[in-house]
């Protein structure tokens, strides 16, 4: 008897890396990957204590493990990918999710380049390094892998402030579209998800709010969406990532999957 589609684990036997996996969308996605049969989920982050705690709660060294990785350092990214392949013999999925938000309301007229360069080192160069080295490992291992990047609705619109952040997410989308064309010959798919505002620790920090105020974040941005009665959670973004990471999307590449309750469509 064939297995029911409802019971099928979509990542059975797969090895995945999740950067920025210690909290927020990364954490929720790492758990979802494990629940969908991933043989190993490598959680990569700079929050060592938290990352180790998450990996242990999922299943330390049986289903999940943690490795320190600052994605702004290409050598650390390369070492993370090599370590994963050496220990688990393959890399099937890279969820390049680590990122930061603009710390100021910068416009082009007051653009501070040291801050700009710090943000780009993580959001753009770091993401490019993850795609580069994951793809290299997949090509070398003859793996028809899936690479998913976290972009943002900021990749598809402009704003009156936070120009450095909006620029960085436009760059992510451009990289995904180009990399998908370059890696398709190897059977490697490259896509991204573009969420609207989700009350993650990163978002709360950027807004100067604490965890108890998560519901307030939803109220702040509620007027800008068209789909009501459906509060956007990290789980919704993780579900989109799972779709792009799994064989359910085996013919999807170069795609920007927007998860925004209709924000962009109404803009």
How many domains, in number, for the residues? 2
Instruction: Output the CATH topology of the largest domain.
Output: Rossmann fold
Radius of gyration: 18 Å
Low-confidence stretches: none
Q: Structural class, judged by helices and strands?
A: alpha/beta
CATH superfamily of the largest domain, called what? NAD(P)-binding Rossmann-like Domain
Strand arrangement within the widest β-sheet reads 3-2-1-4-5-6-7
User: Quick one: CATH class of the largest domain?
Assistant: Alpha Beta
Count of alpha/pi helices? 9
Helix-strand pattern: EHEHEHEHEHEHHHEH
Instruction: Let me know the average pLDDT.
Output: 91
Shape: globular
Largest sheet: 7 strands, parallel
| Helix fraction bin | 40-55%
How many beta-strand elements?
A: 7
Measured by DSSP, the beta-strand proportion falls in: 5-15%
First-residue to last-residue Cα separation: 49 Å
CATH architecture label of the largest domain: 3-Layer(aba) Sandwich
Supply the key terms.
Rossmann fold; 2 domains; 13% strand; 267 residues; seven-stranded parallel beta sheet; NAD(P)-bd_dom_sf; SDR_fam
Protein topology:
Elements: E1 15-19, H1 24-35, E2 40-45, H2 48-59, E3 64-68, H3 74-88, E4 93-96, H4 113-140, E5 146-150, H5 163-183, E6 189-195, H6 201-206, H7 214-221, H8 234-245, E7 256-259, H9 263-266
Parallel strand pairs: 1-2, 1-4, 2-3, 4-5, 5-6, 6-7
Helix pairs in contact: 1-8, 3-4, 4-5
Structure summary:
The chain is of the alpha/beta class and 267 residues long.
What does this protein structure show overall?
There is one protein chain. This protein has 267 residues and is of the alpha/beta class. The chain has two domains: 15-196 and 232-257, NAD(P)-binding Rossmann-like Domain (Rossmann fold), CATH 3.40.50; 199-231, no CATH class. Helix content is 44%, strand content 13%. It has a seven-stranded parallel beta sheet, with helices on both faces. Helix 1 links the parallel strand 1 (15-19) and strand 2. Helix 1 (24-35) crosses helix 8, helix 3 (74-88) runs parallel beside helix 4 and helix 4 (113-140) runs parallel beside helix 5 (163-183). The longest helix is centred in the middle third of the chain and has 28 residues, at 113-140. The radius of gyration is 18 Å and the shape is globular. 44% of the residues are buried. InterPro entries: NAD(P)-bd_dom_sf (IPR036291), SDR_fam (IPR002347). This is (-)-isopiperitenol/(-)-carveol dehydrogenase, mitochondrial-like. Belongs to the short-chain dehydrogenases/reductases (SDR) family.
């Amino acid at each position: 008897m064939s297995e029911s589609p409802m019971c099928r684990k979509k990542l059975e036997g797969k090895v995945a890396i999740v950067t920025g996996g210690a909290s927020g969308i990364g954490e929720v996605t790492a758990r979802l990957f494990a629940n969908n049969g991933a043989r190993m989920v490598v959680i990569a982050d700079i929050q060592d204590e938290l990352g180790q705690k998450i990996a242990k709660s999922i299943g330390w060294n049986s289903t999940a493990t943690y490795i320190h990785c600052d994605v702004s350092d290409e050598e650390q990214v390369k070492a993370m990918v090599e370590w994963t392949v050496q220990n688990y013999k393959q890399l099937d999925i890279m969820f390049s999710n680590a990122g930061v938000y603009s710390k100021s309301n910068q416009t082009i007229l007051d653009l501070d380049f040291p801050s700009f360069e710090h943000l780009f080192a993580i959001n753009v160069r770091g993401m490019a390094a993850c795609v580069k080295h994951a793809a290299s490992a997949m090509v070398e291992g003859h793996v028809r892998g899936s690479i998913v990047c976290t972009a943002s609705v900021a990749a598809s619109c402009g704003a009156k402030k936070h120009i450095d952040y909006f620029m960085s997410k436009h760059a992510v989308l451009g990289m995904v579209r180009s990399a998908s064309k370059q890696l398709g010959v190897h059977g490697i798919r490259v896509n991204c998800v573009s969420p609207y505002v989700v009350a993650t620790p990163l978002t709360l920090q950027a807004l100067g709010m604490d965890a108890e105020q998560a519901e307030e974040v939803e109220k702040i941005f509620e007027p800008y969406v068209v789909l009501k009665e459906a509060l956007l959670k990290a789980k919704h973004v993780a579900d989109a990532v799972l779709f792009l990471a799994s064989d359910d999307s085996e013919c999807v590449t170069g795609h920007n999957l927007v998860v925004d309750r209709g924000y962009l469509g109404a803009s």
